[in-house]
Structure formats: C-alpha cells, structure tokens
Amino acid sequence: MRPFTYAAPESVREALERAGAGSAFLAGGTTLVDLMKLEVVAPEHVLDITGLPLRGIERQGGGVRIGAMERMSDVAEHALVTRAYPVLAEALTQSASPQIRNMATIGGNLLQRTRCGYFRDVAMPCNKRDPGSGCPAIEGANRTHAVLGTSDACAATHPSDLAVALVALDATVRLAGRDGTRDVRLADFYRLPAGTPHQENELRPGELIAAVSVPALPWARRSTYVKVRDRRSYEFALTSAAVAVDVRDGVIAGARVAAGGVGTRPWRLPAVERALIGRRMTEEAFESATAGAAEGARPLAHNGFKPSLLRRTIVRALMKLAG
Q: Where is the signal peptide (predicted)?
C-alpha cells in the first residue's frame, strides 16, 4: 500500500470541497482497502465519510429511500425492505459474508469494482486499470466473465447483487456534488465498456452517492432473487436473476426481470418482461417467455454455458414465485 493522507470531513459539504484529483471516499472500506493493498488503486488522499449524515431507511412517495451510508445487513433486515421488496433483502443477504455485510455500505456496494482477476493483478494488463493496455480475459481465463454488453476492450462482469435487484425495480441514485444534487436511474448510471472500460459509471469528479430511492411498486412484494454460484457462501454470481411479478387471477399482468453475473453492468431484460405478460404461472410458460433472455450474447471460450444457465436461472426464480 502506498502512502496517503487521511481526513474525516464533518459534513457532506466539507467532504465534497476536499474531494479532488487523487482523492477517494472511504465508507465501509471493504472494496477500497483491498484494492489499495493490491495497489490496483493508489489514492493520494483518503476522505473518511463514515460519520456523514447519509443514513436512514424511510418511506418516500409510497416507495423507500435508503441512505448511502446504511450498512448492507441493516437494510436487509429492515421491515420496510423485507415486507415491500423481498428481492432487495434476498440480494443483500446473498452478497458477501455476514462480516462484510456488517461493514459494507449501500453506496459502496453499488460502486464496487469488478472481481476480474486480471483487473486485480497489477502485473497483468487491464484496460479498466490501465487504459489501452489490453484485455487478457478475451483470450485467457474467462469462465466467470460477461457474455452481454462486452466489447473487444473488456468482458468483466459487474459484481453487485444489490444493483441487479435495484435495476429491476427502476431505482434511482441521488448524486451529490459541489454544484448540488441530481438523480439518475440506476439502469442509466452504469456504462457499457465499449472502448473506455475505465469509465464505469456516470459519477462526475468529486461526486458521491447520497441515497438510493426505490419507487412504489405494490406487487414487488411478490419478488425474489436467485443466485447461481460455484459455492454457497462468499462467492460472486455465475448468473443471477431478480424477478418481480404482478399476478391477477392467475395471469401475469406485469413483470420486472434483471440479470447479474452475465453482463458488464446489471442487465435489465424488458423483452422477457413483455413476453411474460398474459401468461399463466407455469413452467412451460416461463420457459417460452425466457427463450430470448440471452439475445445478443457473445460467449468467450470458457463461458459458453452462461446463456443457457441464465434462462434456467430466471425460470427457477419464476417457479419459486409460483410456489
């Protein structure tokens, strides 16, 4: 780890004023500290924002607002979340270990960096870490990598389970900067890699995530998160599915579906959502509706199983909701 200065701003304004080139915000630290130890990132100034008033889990316009500094474990156990949006609680519970969930924050989780081994190994080239140096994953070890939204410059998967569930629910993030605040749909917040994979999101220099807002969606009570991984605990998704359905008289009137583990960002599947409408809650209907879930996929040498696994994962989530 390289030397750095440390400060603990006492207000959001002070934190934003101190932020600049070479600085990084420290929240739970479960991602930043790891990457600093590996020297994947080497900020000159670390701004500890753990004491800032960016907390709270409260009703907002029929939905819920979650402060960016809330701990993952606290959000997963909160009655507002477990009752109205079980998909969020399940995605959080299946993220990392209990110890990490007790430390990691909501904002930090949404901004965590990819788990691609090439990105985390400073001896290897990586376009995310060193733009223009190349992407060894394209021809190398790529079993866990993305098949949707990839480019010749990057095939790294987005790591956040929470982000997948929030994208399915049309959540927005409130970003705070020196010029004020702005709200961005989470689905629009993450960028595709194209030729600039080091530009991962829409954060402007010096901005931070202040809160997450999930809109009112009464039928999201019927929602779930299914995560397929190599081991049951402390493992990132090979595929995952966040699903919510509105069922009336046994027929699907509305659906929300997003996938993780397969895309370079959380992957919303509107075509699957449309295909589900008007169908009954049967396995045959689910298999038909999810047939095009991986349309446009570009499998690499070792992850050709992912499109099929994605379809099966979505069907499994729907069957879980069907009871």
A: none
How is residue 10 written in tokens? 């006492």
Mean pLDDT of the chain: 97
116, two tokens: 């691609």
pLDDT digits (tens, 9 = 90+) for 63-90: 999 999 999 999 999 999 999 999 999 9
Contacts of 299 (CB under 8 A, 6+ apart): 147, 306, 307
**pLDDT tens digits, residue range 200-210?**
999 999 999 99
For strand 45-48 and strand 23-26, is the pairing parallel, antiparallel, or unpaired? parallel
Helices H, strands E: what count in the chain?
A: 13, 12
Residues 101-140, buried b or exposed e (16+ Cβ, 10 A)?
bebbbbbbbbbbbbebbbbbeeebebbbbeeeeebbbbee
What distance in Å separates the CA atoms of residue 68 and residue 55, rounded to the nearest whole number? 6
Q: With the C-alpha atoms ordered 303, 305, 308, 314, is the resulting torsion angle positive or negative? A: negative
Which 3 state secondary structure label does DSSP give 57?
A: strand
Q: How far apart (Å, rounded) are the C-alpha atoms in residues 98 and 119?
A: 25
CA-to-CA separations, 323 to 109, 208, 221, in angstroms, rounded: 31, 41, 14
Helices 161-168 and 86-93: crossing angle in degrees, nearest 10, is 170
Q: What's the length of the chain?
A: 323
The domain 219-322: what is its CATH number?
3.30.390.50
Q: What is the pLDDT of residue 234?
A: 78
Q: Using alpha carbons, select from 157, 167, 53 the residue that is nearest to residue 114.
A: 157
Q: Which residues 6+ apart lie within 8 Å of 145 measured at CB?
A: 116, 137, 155, 156, 157, 300, 303
| Angular region, 29: left φ>0, alpha ψ -120 to 50, beta rest | left
Q: Domain limits of the chain?
A: 219-322
